Amino acid sequence: MDMPDKPLAAGCAHQPTDGMDALSQIGVDVRQPNSKPGLVCELQGRPQDACAHGGYDKSTRQFWSYWHAASPADKWTFSTKGAAQYHPAAGSVEGWRWGTGKGFPPRQVSAARKPPAMPPESGHGSGPLTTIGVVVAVIALGVGVWWTRRKQTRRDAE
Predict the structure, then answer these.
(1) CATH number for the segment(s) 1-124
(2) Are 99 and 135 in contact (CB under 8 A)?
(3) Is residue 155 classed as helix, strand or coil in its secondary structure?
(4) Nearest to 113 by CA among 11, 2, 6
(5) How far apart are CA 12 and CA 88, in angstroms?
(6) What does the alpha-carbon distance between residue 93 and residue 108 come to, in Å, rounded to a whole number?
(7) CB burial string 44-70: b at 16+ within 10 A, e below
(8) Cβ distance 107 to 2 under 8 Å?
(9) Among 119, 124, 113, 111, CA closest to 50
(10) What are the pLDDT digits (tens) for 57-67?
């Protein structure tokens, strides 16, 4: 799974029934737009809010493209089937890249990477971890302001 700035996830799926199963087996959350079932609009919540636009960024013409390779050493081939219709062969490699399509295959990845955490959904994020994070941020900000004022007071006293 590859965004233009960095690879996001890689893993091994054991005998996946299709491309969607392969993503599920490595722990990637797949979102599909309600208007187009079967189309992948977000992988692991990225890019955020892509499903609201049907999985396609009109301004950049980017979408999640699906790729295959017979082995990790082989070149990528753009998929002519969707992930729910494609049945990966044993030892093959599946790839996803947010980009403009055929001319931009995923990077070659040699090691497994755990998928990144899901970003909070719109209107969510009020759980205990969010509250703790806000409290820690406020404390850190307060300490920073105190430290800066303390240094300034010492300079003024000199």
Answers:
(1) 2.170.130
(2) no
(3) helix
(4) 11
(5) 12
(6) 10
(7) bbbbeebbeeebeeeeeebbbbbbbbe
(8) yes
(9) 119
(10) 888 888 999 99
